[in-house]
Each structure stands twice: as C-alpha cells, then as structure tokens.
C-alpha cells in the first residue's frame, strides 16, 4: 500500500517541458494535476535544455494546480537518470511526484524509487516525492500486479493506450473495423483491479483529438464506470470535460451522507440493514456509499 498522501486526480493535464509559454500558462490553471513532460512532448535533441526550463518553471512560477509532477523518460533510454537527478536536485522541494513512462517490470519503478531515496537524503528534502507510473507496454500489462505492489512511493498507475496499442500491434485504424466500441476495456479493467488491490489511483490516458469533446466524454465515462479516478488532458479545453465526469454529483453525495448517518444510527440500535428513502442500505452497499463520500471529501465537495 502506498505511504503517500491521497491526491485528487480527476484531470491530469500534460504540459510540454520545452515550452516556456505553456509552462507559464499551466502554472495558473485551476486543475487537480499537471505534469511537465520531458518525454514524448520533447524532441531528443531538446531534452537536456527542457530539464532546465522545467526546473526554472518549478522554482520561478507560482503553481496553482494541486499536484505538480514531472514526466521523465523510461529507464531503457539514455535520459531517465539525468531527468530525475537534474529535476530533483534543481527543484525537488517544489515537486510532488515523478511520473515514469513505459514501465515494463517492478524493477523499473524500484530504480526510480532508490534514486529518489538517495537524492532526498543527499539534498535534505523533507517532503517525500511520490511516483506515478505509465503502463503502456504489453510487458507492463503482464506484470501490472507486481508493478502495483512494488513501491510505497507509488500513488497511481496510468493506462497509456497509444503506446500500448502499438506494443500489442492493435489495428486501431483498420478500415471497416466492427470490433466492440471500447477497444481498451480489458487493459483498463485489468489495471484498475491491480491499482485498487494496492491502494493506488487508476488513471485513464490521453484522447488525442481535442476538437472532439463528445468522444472525449464517452471515453472518460467508460473509465469512470470501471472505477478509474481520472483522465489525462492534452489540451486545457479537456480539463472541464474530465472534471465533469469525475466530480461526484452533489445530490448523490448528500444522499450518500444521509445513508451513512442513518446506517451508523441503525448499527447503534443493533440493526444490520435499513431503508433510507426507499433505498436498502446494508454493510455491502455502505462501501459504495463511503467510496462516493471519500471522493467528495478529497476535492472539498
């Protein structure tokens, strides 16, 4: 189980680490989570310079998002260790989490975990940096249980459907495909189970066409129904859409709190199941009620 604090993750907004303009804009956004990207959003020859821009932005800007994260390159690249070392050494006190890409096995995550152990001790950082991890390779999905259980720094796993589709050689652009509409149902479901079994947040990855809000909403709703905590946004216009889906309905929250209070009173009277406004409430249903209340409390609803 994670030793890290719970954080709201209704929306995780991607920000290119090589763009000073976009970094400055992201700092002022009212969003649960932003991650400053050193991986896919940055060309290989621009990665060293992007680290410096990210450090300057972390130190020099007032960050409004609740969680500030940096996405580093994967452990099989030449950039991963320098990403972690330079960012944490330069601005570790302003950083909430590190996001590791393309984790294939538990040892990939433990590499980052141990590196953070050393850096925090060396730098005297008093706030522990969490790890977020992308599952976007078939090897990662095969090892998702071990990955989810390997580190108490882990806070969430993210399903990266783009690279995952390539890794599995899925023919997502095949003309006339009649496959059922949720092509990623199984990996979403599989990763969500591993997360919930280990106290982590499961997060859905990006939707590339930010000019199609209806399709984005549909994908977010699919993820939400399966128990995922939020979804990525690759453009600020998607933030409101993710928040709309993953923010609990206030009326449902009020009803859940009323059911919980009535159930607790019933237990004091020795009753095991009761009816609250025509709804049966018992030990099983109260777990769903509590989950809704917890999500509402996390965002201050």
Name some characteristics of this structure.
301 residues; 10 strands; single chain; two-stranded antiparallel ribbon
- Work out the helicity level: 40-55%
Structural class determined from secondary elements: alpha/beta
Major sheet details: 8 strands, parallel, barrel
Rg, Cα atoms, Å: 20 Å
Q: How is this structure best described in words?
A:
- With 301 residues, this protein is an alpha/beta fold.
- It is 46% helix and 16% strand.
- The chain contains twelve helices and ten strands.
- It has helices at 20-27, 47-60, 80-91, 106-123, 138-142, 144-149, 161-167, 185-197, 213-225, 239-246, 250-268, 283-298, and strands at 11-16, 33-37, 67-72, 97-100, 130-135, 154-159, 201-204, 230-233, 274-276, 279-281.
- The strands form two sheets. An eight-stranded parallel beta barrel has the order 1-2-3-4-5-6-7-8, surrounded by six helices. The protein has a two-stranded antiparallel ribbon with strand order 9-10.
- β4 (97-100), α4 and β5 form a beta-alpha-beta unit.
- The longest helix has 19 residues, at 250-268.
- The protein is globular, with a radius of gyration of 20 Å.
- The two termini are 26 Å apart.
- The mean pLDDT is 94.
